[in-house]
């Protein structure tokens, strides 16, 4: 990484630009500063077409306006977060901000000001880097260091929202009167400016509304989820083709292979990839990915590509590393497949949200009783939750811009609701027999199996968005054989 002169963006535009403590240049001569002010071409972009989801984001803002008439609404994108010293994590805009604007730039803030019977929306952004004061080349977040920003005029054309300089916003909010609600947890400066104007209760109501607004996906969102699933399927194919290299190295090779696909076809992975080989498959969120990959073991790969518009897939397959399931692996895998089939069949409009979970858990409980691992009858097992020793987790969750989407929704609007067309959820039953579980025969120990797909509720049932990847054990083996040539 090159050694820029200053470690951070000034809090105020008029503050002097700071130099890095141990930079190699002692300062900037007047002659160099003057030289850097001029001789630059005009790069302003004109005639920009609106972003593809401009109509959808406008409709989302209109729904938000209708829900909170007469109140000022503040939704920040968020700030860069320090990874270590003067390096930052890659920026990812807050879900609420991106959902309402389609913008993903750091420091942005959407403000809806009450106006008449509705609101006037303004998006507050950092303008182009200032060349007159040297910010564009001296500041660590100047455009010479991190890339060109859109001008405020360009942003207005793209987003369909009037744009202003975000550096003026905190002062304006501090002087604002009337009721205010804000999405918290993303911008400490904005929260400080609003500290005497907001309440935790009002802000939570805003967060809950924006979470519930995403329960039913519009057409743009469905198309993005389809893209995410298609790219994810290609990522799984990539992994199968290099399993021999993973055996020579570690689970990290699998993680890195999938990450390449995510970065080439999307923004990133939607969550930390779980590349769990052998007994690691029994650890639900195994993301260390530093274990051995051995022929004869299973690989539980739980991974999803996040699109450039921030919609993620969430898919799991449990694959035999050498291409063939052993007898006990197939027995457990086929039980999970049967449970997933029952769960997917229960996804349809008008069904209770919990139905798919109950259907899958019943199948798994029946298998555990049949195998003699738990004493029946099945109704007793389900009533007492005894199957959970080996099934562990719920059978799915809502999916969208967050992998666990709509998480702040009220219980009655989420797990206690009925399914509607446009909802998208995962169906992901699993069986996990820990390596140290003395209640099961030794042959079961260390085997973990999960199968997960992304299911869209349709008018007449459901559609599996991730059906590009095989699920039945014999089809998985044939698919792997074909990919390995």
From TrEMBL:
Biased composition (Acidic residues): 1-14
Keyword annotations from UniProtKB, A to Z: Aminopeptidase, Hydrolase, Manganese, Metal-binding, Protease
Region called Disordered, residue ranges: 1-26
A Pfam family of this chain: AMP_N
GO cellular component, one term: cytosol
Domain Aminopeptidase P N-terminal: start-end pairs: 52-191
CDD domains (alphabetical): Prolidase (cd01087)
Domain of life: Bacteria
EC numbers on record: 3.4.11.9
GO process terms (BP): proteolysis
Protein name from the UniProt record: Xaa-Pro aminopeptidase
Reactions the enzyme catalyzes: Release of any N-terminal amino acid, including proline, that is linked to proline, even from a dipeptide or tripeptide
Cofactors that this protein relies on: Mn(2+)
Species of provenance: Streptomyces termitum
One Gene Ontology term of the molecular function aspect: metalloaminopeptidase activity
Residues making up the signal peptide according to the UniProt record: none
EC class (word): hydrolase
């Amino acid at each position: 990484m090159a050694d820029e002169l200053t470690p951070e963006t000034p809090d105020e535009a008029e503050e002097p630009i700071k130099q890095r403590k141990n930079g190699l240049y002692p300062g900037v001569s007047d002659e160099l500063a003057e030289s850097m002010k001029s001789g630059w071409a005009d790069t302003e972009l004109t005639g920009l077409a609106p972003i593809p989801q401009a109509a959808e984001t406008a409709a989302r803002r209109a729904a938000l306006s209708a829900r909170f008439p007469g109140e000022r609404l503040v939704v920040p994108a968020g700030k860069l977060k320090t990874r270590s010293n003067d390096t930052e994590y890659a920026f990812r805009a807050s879900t609420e901000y991106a959902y309402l604007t389609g913008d993903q730039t750091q420091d942005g803030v959407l403000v809806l000001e009450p106006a008449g019977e509705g609101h006037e929306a303004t998006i507050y952004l950092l303008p182009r880097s200032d060349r007159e004061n040297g910010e564009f080349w001296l500041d660590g977040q100047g455009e010479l260091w991190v890339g060109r920003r859109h001008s405020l005029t360009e942003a207005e054309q793209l987003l369909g929202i009037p744009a202003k300089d975000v550096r003026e916003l905190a002062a304006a909010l501090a002087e604002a009167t009337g009721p205010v609600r804000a999405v918290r947890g993303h911008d400490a400066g904005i929260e400080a400016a609003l500290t005497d104007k907001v309440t935790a209760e009002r802000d939570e109501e805003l967060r809950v509304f924006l979470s519930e607004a995403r329960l039913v996906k519009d057409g743009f969102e469905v198309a993005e989820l389809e893209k995410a699933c298609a790219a994810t399927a290609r990522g799984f194919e990539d992994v199968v083709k290099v399993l021999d290299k993973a055996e020579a190295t570690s689970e990290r090779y699998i993680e890195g292979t999938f990450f390449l696909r995510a970065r080439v076809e999307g923004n990133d992975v939607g969550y930390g990839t779980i590349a769990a080989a052998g007994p690691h498959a029994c650890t639900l969120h195994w993301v260390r990915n530093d274990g051995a990959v051995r022929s004869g073991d299973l690989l539980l790969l739980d991974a999803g590509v996040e699109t450039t518009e921030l919609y993620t897939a969430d898919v799991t397959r449990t694959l035999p590393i050498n291409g063939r399931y052993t007898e006990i692996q197939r027995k457990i895998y086929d039980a999970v497949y049967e449970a997933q089939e029952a769960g997917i069949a229960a996804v349809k409009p008008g069904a209770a949200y919990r139905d798919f979970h109950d259907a899958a858990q019943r199948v798994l409980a029946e298998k555990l009783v049949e195998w003699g691992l738990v004493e029946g009858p099945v109704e007793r097992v389900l009533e007492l939750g005894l199957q959970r020793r080996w099934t562990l987790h719920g059978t799915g969750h809502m999916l969208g811009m967050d992998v666990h989407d709509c998480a702040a929704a009220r219980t009655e609007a989420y797990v206690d609701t009925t399914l509607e067309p446009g909802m998208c959820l995962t169906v992901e039953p699993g069986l996990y027999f820990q390596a140290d579980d003395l209640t099961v025969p030794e042959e079961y120990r260390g085997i973990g199996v999960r199968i997960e797909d992304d299911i869209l509720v349709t008018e007449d049932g459901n559609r599996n968005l991730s059906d590009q990847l095989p699920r039945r054990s014999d089809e998985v083996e044939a698919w792997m054989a074909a990919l390995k040539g």
